[in-house]
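Translate sequence into structure tokens.
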Amino acid sequence: MARSSKITAVNHEAQRAKIKTTKLLLRLQDNALGEIELSKERIRSIEILLKKTIPDLSSVTVAGDKANPLSVIVTGVERADDKSGV
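Result follows.
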């Protein structure tokens, strides 16, 4: 039983982090849309926290070489009017 409760605790931590990230993103969105006003300091604080939870994709390089070329496998496409994922 101890193992399953430990896994559950880890899952809860991951969920809490996701929720906090979502809340931060929503605050920034509300600020961008003019619904709320955030100070420069608060925006900077949100930016710092988001950098800890969301990877900075601008610094990621995906590359292959002749011996190991990259390939993309599409498993499903979701259309805007069709939420079935097929």
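Note: The radius of gyration is 19 Å.
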